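Dear colleagues,

As part of the handover before I leave the project, I'm documenting each prediction I ran so the next person doesn't have to rerun anything. This entry is a single chain, and its sequence is reproduced below.
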Amino acid sequence: MLINEVCKRCGLTKKAIEYYEEQDLTHPQIMENGYGYVKINSQKIENGYKVENFIEKPTEQNASDLIKDSSYYWNSGIFVFKASTLLNEAKKYTPEIYNCLKIFDLKNYEIKPADFEKLPNISIDYAIMEKTDKLALIELASDWKDLGSWKSVYDVSKKDANGNVKIGNILDFESKKMQGTSCNVEICCKFDDL
């Protein structure tokens, strides 16, 4: 995640902690089916809104429709909640996860890798957030970007005159729209759109 307006972000986080169960979100700017979408309803609560619907990673067609509706926001993936609330929602919506939690040694903050592997392979977004009715939203007005792909890193990175992004020791000769990352010395010659 990339947020340049750090002060604004910190202020919202304080509000969210006061509410325990709220999320920071931002309005969709482009069609992106790799993000979660959250719809607010008109029920205003202090510092935010009640959530009507949460859709994690919609289909491309569905995402195209969602960005046309101003009541949808992107989920930035930042959740704030009481542990007891999360456990109650896990017990209600994902008992297979809730039951696995009993084998963890939470008193000593120890989770053995073998025990962790027993958990179902599902994100909190699909397991709980799409199902719960205990969501609220605090709007985050910022230049938030999810840096979950090389394309998104390229999009936000400083580029040279040929549109190249060079991170590390990269010697380049006539490349265009190339993204390179290196810990050693890399030599690139006439790459285009790499």
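The beta strands are 22-26, 36-45, 48-56, 72-79, 136-139, 165-173, 179-189. Residues 6-19 form the longest helix (14 residues).

All the best with the project,
I.
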